[in-house]
Amino acid sequence: MNTKSLYQEVILDHNRKPRNYGTLEHPSHQAVGHNPLCGDRLDISLQLENDQISCIAFHGESCAICKASASMMTAAVKGKTRTDAETLIQEFREMTLGELDLNHPHHLGRLTVFSGIRDLPTRVKCAILPWHTLHAALNALSSVSTEAENDPASSTSENASGNV
Q: In terms of C-beta distances under 8 Å and separation of at least 24 residues, what long-range contacts does 37-41 make, across chains too?
């Protein structure tokens, strides 16, 4: 099976049957992410116990890419420490922007199915939104957006200079 058809199969599977879809009754951390350009809106909630993500859920309205990314993200970070989750967030962002060399050691595993998204610039924000929202939740930010200085697809130097 080629990479493109595997990507399509994974996206369709996670869109139809998202993992960890729903809400948590009493989350210790939560955030809302919004992509105004395409209308994606996700709520991420999690329970952090002893610096480990013991439970995580998401819900909202989003495109198939965003929902599949959120589904795979929640499965990947459940049981991980905050530090391990932040590493995955950074590596996923770098991969989707074409900045991560997948031939070198990384922690993404099955998430590399999203590596081709870098060739679809208009969809990168869809794939990154759940990860950007998880980062916000872990860092006690109640909401994030993919626009202007908050754009997770912009580099830090662009954000610092205001050229977004």
A: 37/125, 37/146, 37/147, 38/63, 38/125, 38/126, 40/66, 40/126, 40/129
Q: Is the pTM of this model over 0.85?
A: yes
Match 């909630």 to its residue by tokens: 45
List, in order of start, the domains of the chain with CATH numbers: 3-142 (3.90.1010.10)
Compute φ and ψ for 60, nearest 5 degrees.
145, -175
Along the 164 residues of the chain, how does pLDDT read in single tens digits? 577 787 789 889 999 999 999 999 999 999 999 998 889 999 999 999 999 999 999 999 999 999 999 999 999 999 999 999 999 999 999 999 999 999 999 999 999 999 999 998 889 999 999 999 999 999 999 889 888 665 655 543 333 323 22
